[in-house]
Amino acid sequence: MDWNVVEESLGVRLPSDYKEFAEVYGGGTILDYFILCLMVPPHVEGLIEWWEDEMWDLRQFPDEVPRGYVIDQGSVNLLPWALTIDGDFCYLWMEPRQEPDRWWVVTRTRDMDWSVFEGSMVEFLEEVVAGRRRELWMPRDFPGEEPWFKTTAQYLADTDPGRADSTD
Predict the structure, then answer these.
(1) May I ask which residue range the UniProt record assigns to the signal sequence (predicted)?
(2) Helix (H) or strand (E) run with residue 18 in it
(3) Domain segments of the chain: what residues?
(4) What is the pLDDT of residue 163?
(5) What is residue 1's predicted lDDT score, i.e. its pLDDT?
(6) Phi-psi category of 26—alpha, beta or left, where left has phi over 0 and alpha has psi -120 to 50?
(7) SS3 per-residue string spanning 42-103
(8) pLDDT band per the 50, 70, 90 thresholds, residue 159
(9) Distance CA 92, CA 95 (A)
(10) Residue (of 143, 141, 147, 58) closest to 106 by Cα position
(11) 58 touches 70 (CB < 8 A)
(12) DSSP annotation of 129
């Protein structure tokens, strides 16, 4: 995977664990509930548009966005990487911007309740899947005793077989 092209499109370097996870697993879903939307080819352009749309949505409620999270066009410091089927989001908090391996995870519910995880995306996923990290948006039984992951291609093959071939 040519990360230089991806990062140039984004205008920012990505954390090394993000890139390693994306190379091994790509995007997908945990329990068909928690959807990982990683910036990987060939979907980068569409995901950048999704990122811009999400920041536009947040700009509609500036009083609901905690201090320190910049959503102003041209200086955004939140990069969405996952969401739930209920409209809750996970972001990378891109601070300090030039040191992506130090970025933390920020989450918000659809009702604009925010929380911070002082660790990387992969550390957050490890804590969530192991059941050691709870977020307000998580159903009581999530992730359960045997959490599973489906790639985007597997998910589409299960739900929309005609689209499954177009994800690679």
Answers:
(1) none
(2) helix 16-24
(3) 3-161
(4) 61
(5) 83
(6) left
(7) CCHHHHHHHHHHHHHHHHCCHHHCCCCCCCCCCCCCEEEEEEECCCCEEEEECCCCCCHHHC
(8) confident
(9) 9
(10) 58
(11) no
(12) H
Q: Is 56 exposed, middle or buried (0-12, 13-18, 19+ CB in 10 A)?
A: exposed
Six token digits for residue 62: 């500036």
Residue 33 CA to residue 99 CA, distance in Å, equals 31
Residue for token digits 């994800």? Answer: 167
The residues pairing with 150 across neighbouring beta strands, listed in sequence order, are: 29
H helix count then E strand count, the chain: 5, 7
The 3-state DSSP class for residue 9 equals helix
Task: Name the amino acid, one letter, at 108.
Answer: R
pLDDT by residue (tens digit) across 27-56? 999 999 999 999 887 778 888 999 999 999
